[in-house]
Fold this sequence. Notes:
globular; mainly alpha
Amino acid sequence: MSAPNLSNINSLPFLxxxxxxxxxxHIWISIPFCFMYIMxxxxxxxxxxxxxxxxxxxxxxxxxxxxxxxxxxxxxxAVVPKMLGIFWLDAREIAFEGCFIQMFFIHTFTAVxxxxxxxMSFDRYVAICxxxxxxxxxxxxxxxxxxxxxxxxxxxxxIPLMCLLTSLPYCKTRVIPHSYCEHMAVVELACADPSISxxxxxxxxxxxVGSDSIFITFSYSMILRSVLRLSREARLKALSTCGSHIAxxxxxxxxxxxxxxxxxxxxxxxxxxxxxxxxxYLTVPPMLNPLIYGIKTKQIREQMVKLIEQLVGLSISLADxxxxxxxxxxxx
Length: 332
C-alpha cells in the first residue's frame, strides 16, 4: 500500500458502537454512567478544594490524595462525555487523531495513578516506620517532584506506543466494538502485523505494574511489622489510615487486571460484558475513591463537613442580603 493511500485511510474517522448488543438499552444504561460521572466530579473536586483551602492539610499525604483526585477527574472525563454522546445522541463518530488522544490519556494516567499509589505507600511507610525523619524526607518540593516524575514516566512510556499504533494502517473496518478507543479493540482493526506494539505494551505494563506492586507490597509489609509493635490505640490509628490506601490500591489493580485479561483472552463472554467491565473500571473507582477518603480519613471528613457548613452559611447569607429590608423585618 502506498503512503498516500495509507494517509487517506488513517485520516478517516472511527465509529464507536457503544455497548455491542445492547444498543436498544443505551438510554437506560446512560443513567448510571451519568450519575457516576456527576458524583465523580463532585467528590474529587471536593477533595481538591478541601486540601487547597485548609492549611492544616498541606502535608505530603494530602498532596498525594489531591494528585489521585486530579487523575480521577481525568479518567472519566476522557471517556464518559463521548460515551454519553453515543448513548443519547448516537454520536458514534470519533476522529482518527481524537481516538488516539483519548487512548493516550487513558493509558498515560493509568501509569501515573500506579506511580502515585506507590508514592502514597512510601509516604505511609516513612510516617509510620520513620516518623522522626518524615518532615525531612518528604518535603513539599520532594512531593511535587515525585508527582512530576510519575507523570513523566507515564508520558515516556506511552509516546513510543502511540507512535507504533498510529503508524499501522487501519483498513479492515472503521467500527470499534466498544464505548471508547480501547487499545485491544482498536489494534484488531489494523491490517498489518501489530505484534511489535502488542509486545511493547505487554512488556511495559508488566514492568510498571509488576515493579510498583512489588514495592507497594514491601512498603505495607514493613508497615504491618512496625504496627504490630505499637500500642493498641496507635495500632488502630495506623491501620485506619492505611486501610483507605489499601482499599484504593486493590480497587485499582484488581479492576485493571480483570478488564485487561477480559480484553486479551477469549473467555466465552458476551461482547457487552467485556465492554461493560472496561467501562466500569474507568468510572467506578474514580467515584468511590473520594468516598473511601471521606470514610477512612478523619481529617478529610472533618474538613469537608466544615467546608459544606461554610458554603451553606454563605448561601444563606447571600440569600438574606438579596431580600428587601421589609422582607428581612418580617422574617425576623
